[in-house]
């Protein structure tokens, strides 16, 4: 799986002009399932992100996690993280999981974040979403479970 984690002071998702999810202090997590990923991959990534030290401690160092700060997660499925830009000017997305697998792993990832103790909201899988955020720092981390294995 691939993920982009952004430390935010606020983030929201709108679909068809209506807000469907919003958080204050926490992380916007864009996730993309890849072929070969499974429920264990989704669960392991969620647990790693829940414990990742992205937030400032009293000394201003990035030393605290979502779990330690009480931050929330807004999880949004984003198949475009699988973009192949090696040839031409049009990205290819054949490296993304099938929609059926992607939806199952996206929901499993969000569920694992919540079970880990992180208040979690989600976007709407497959929808045309407008995602707004205020990146705090800015802090943006890219993760790929294949590279970290």
Blueprint (SSEs and pairs):
Blueprint (H helix, E strand, L loop, with lengths): L1 E14 L2 E6 L2 E7 L6 H13 L3 E2 L5 E3 L1 H4 L2 E6 L21 H17 L4 E3 L6 E16 H4 L1
Parallel strand pairs: 3-6, 6-7
Antiparallel strand pairs: 1-2, 1-3, 1-8, 4-5
What do you see in this structure?
- This protein is of the alpha/beta class and 149 residues long.
- It has one domain (2-148): D-tyrosyl-trna(Tyr) Deacylase, Chain: A (3-Layer(bba) Sandwich), CATH 3.50.80.
- The protein has helices spanning 39-51, 66-69, 99-115, 145-148, and strands at 2-15, 18-23, 26-32, 55-56, 62-64, 72-77, 120-122, 129-144.
- The strands form 2 sheets. Strands 1, 2, 3, 6, 7 and 8 form a 6-stranded mixed beta sheet that branches. It has a two-stranded antiparallel sheet with strand order 4-5.
- The longest helix is centred in the last third of the chain and has 17 residues, at 99-115.
- The radius of gyration is 15 Å and the shape is globular.
- The termini are close together.
- The mean pLDDT is 96.
């Amino acid at each position: 799986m691939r993920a982009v984690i952004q430390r935010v002071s606020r983030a929201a998702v709108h679909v068809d002009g209506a807000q469907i999810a919003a958080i204050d202090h926490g992380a916007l997590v864009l996730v993309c399932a890849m072929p070969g990923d499974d429920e264990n991959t989704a669960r392991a990534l969620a647990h790693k992100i829940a414990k990742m030290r992205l937030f400032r401690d009293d000394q201003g160092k990035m030393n605290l996690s979502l779990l330690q700060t009480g931050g929330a997660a807004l999880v949004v499925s984003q198949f475009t993280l699988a973009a192949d830009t090696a040839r031409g000017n049009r990205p290819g997305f054949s490296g993304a999981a099938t929609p059926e697998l992607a939806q199952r792993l996206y929901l499993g990832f969000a569920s694992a974040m919540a079970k880990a103790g992180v208040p979690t909201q989600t976007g709407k899988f497959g929808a045309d979403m407008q995602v707004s955020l205020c990146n705090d720092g800015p802090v943006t981390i890219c993760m790929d479970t294949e590279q970290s294995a």
